[in-house]
Specification:
The protein is mostly helical and 504 residues long. The protein is 73% helix and 0% strand. The protein is globular.
């Protein structure tokens, strides 16, 4: 099981059987096939994504050979993949030779699907004993647990491999074992453990882009940027137009906040990609983050002008992003057209109304006319109110936080604090997340009493946050004046000159 069948499907005998079968189906003429022939055809259809055709081939197999164990197993696995567990159990009862290796694996798979892991493991343990801890058997068991995302049991069977084999040298000579270890550890919580195995793989296959990209991913997950780019550069030396590598290298620069270099990678990606959607989306987002709104608009317009590749919701998001960019650039009328288009496409989506509210907040902040400013703030409040009406009660705390954050980001602390205060009142279990923002907002509004109130709450309820306030580790390190004031206040508190408790 789990072996590569692709070369088998090039075999002339298989091709002849496949042609006879497809001729029978097309011409509706009866024909006889051995069970193995039909099962191979079903495997071929499965490999090529033709699952309905695979099921039809197995149905014919069971009509011609109703007790064939391999066909029954294929049918059971197909039913399990479709979530039809009761039907799978019924078919399983038709298997007469339940001690067959494949049947025992199938029994274990079905138990795993029902979360009866200990029972499944007992079956696997017995199979391992019966097959004298054969390497391929242990690897088959390991793969079952990897696919089922059972990390504890996966690690136990890796320990079993270590107990029965020399795992220092065996991966160097057994490609299947090496690939499994590379794949598993590179996707696990310990990508560092994949790195030695990936180097083994690259010693054998130095021109493998797949291995170089996996190595780069593992280093990236550990924020090891120099090693990350070294791996991706080796990959690009092999193929300088490899789309996966260019994407990963762009992501690495983005994660390290080297946004201009990230843009360079995605521009290269756009130049070599037939489907440019991924590159354009990344570039638009990066330019928005860099506040280069004109450049962002140019890439968003390229995406909007595409006739395919995006859902209706994604297109609405692009219109709303364009609206925000125009708002920052002072292009109010064009931005208003874009936000209207987004709302027309997704009028019942609360997120879209929050973005619309943000558009009006930005326009209000940029307005020098007081009446125009108030008008746009009223428009913003209408959009936010509509968003809250459309939001289920259990999600309203998050919606209130997002709305407050819109005002906070645009330095409208009076409105921001109203929403953060509402969270404190209606959703006290989520209040901790608002304390620092409220304290900062009241500091900016020069309201000392509520500022001290939330500073006291932070000290009492989230002391870890209080400890970092005013330091280089603070969440608001960019405001030097605020941090300097905090350091002075905290020093007075530590000396006993200020009693925080009286502000609770």
């Amino acid at each position: 099981m789990n072996y590569d069948m692709s070369s088998f499907f090039e075999d002339p005998e298989f091709k002849e059987a496949l042609a006879r079968y497809e001729g029978m189906v097309e011409n509706h003429t009866p024909a006889y096939f051995e069970a193995d022939e039909l099962i191979d055809i079903a495997e071929y259809y499965t490999l090529t994504g033709r699952h309905k055709d695979a099921d039809q081939a197995i149905e014919l197999t069971l009509r011609l050979h109703p007790e064939n164990t391999d066909a029954l197993i294929f049918r059971i696995r197909s039913l399990m993949l479709q979530g039809r567990k009761e039907e799978a159990q019924t078919v399983a009862q038709l298997i007469s030779n339940s001690t067959d290796r494949e049947c025992r694996f199938l029994q274990a798979e079905m138990l795993i699907s029902e979360n009866r892991i200990e029972e499944a493991d007992e079956i696997f343990k017995q199979v391992a004993i019966d097959e004298d801890y054969d390497l391929d058997t242990l690897l088959d068991i390991l793969l079952e647990y990897i696919r089922a995302h059972q990390e504890t049991y996966t690690e136990q069977w890796i320990d079993c491999l270590h107990a029965h084999f020399d795992m220092q040298t065996l991966p160097k000579t057994n490609q299947r074992l090496l690939d499994i270890l590379c794949d598993y550890y590179s996707m696990s919580r310990r990508p560092d453990l994949a790195i030695p195995y990936l180097h083994m793989a690259l010693d054998k296959h130095p021109y493998s882009i797949r291995y170089w990209n996996m190595l780069g991913r593992c280093h990236l997950r550990q924020d090891q940027y120099e090693e990350t780019h070294e791996a991706f550069d080796f990959s690009l030396a092999i193929d300088d137009e490899n789309e996966e590598t260019l994407t990963l290298k762009g992501m690495a620069y983005q994660q390290a906040m080297q946004l201009e270099k990230a843009c360079e990678c995605y521009i290269r990606l756009a130049n070599v990609s037939e489907n440019k959607t991924r590159a354009y989306l990344a570039l638009a987002q990066l330019y928005i983050e860099m506040r280069e709104h004109a450049s962002a608009i140019s890439y968003i317009e390229k995406l909007i002008n595409q006739k395919s590749g995006l859902s209706k919701y994604e297109r609405a998001e692009l219109h709303s992003d364009t609206a925000l960019c125009h708002a920052y650039l002072g292009h109010t009328e064009e931005g208003y057209k874009q936000i209207e288009q987004a709302l027309k496409m997704e009028e019942n989506d609360p997120d879209m109304h929050i973005v619309a509210g943000r558009f009006f907040v930005i326009v209000a902040q940029k307005s020098e006319d007081s009446e125009e400013k108030e008008k746009n703030l009223r428009n913003a409040e209408e959009q936010f109110a509509h968003a809250l009406e459309l939001t289920p009660k259990e999600e309203q705390s998050d919606a209130l936080f997002r709305i407050g954050s819109v005002y906070f980001d645009e330095h409208n602390y009076e409105y921001a604090n109203q929403y953060f205060e509402q969270i404190n009142k209606e959703f006290p279990e989520d209040a901790n997340d608002t304390y620092l923002l409220l304290a900062y907002g009241y500091y900016q509004l020069q309201k000392s009493v509520p500022f001290m109130h939330y500073l006291a709450k932070i000290n009492k309820e989230v002391p870890d946050v209080y400890a970092t306030m005013g330091t280089d580790d603070s969440e608001l390190t960019t405001d030097d004046c605020f941090n300097e004031a905090l350091r002075a206040i905290k020093e007075d508190i530590s000396k006993g000159n200020i009693n925080l408790n009286k502000y609770l």
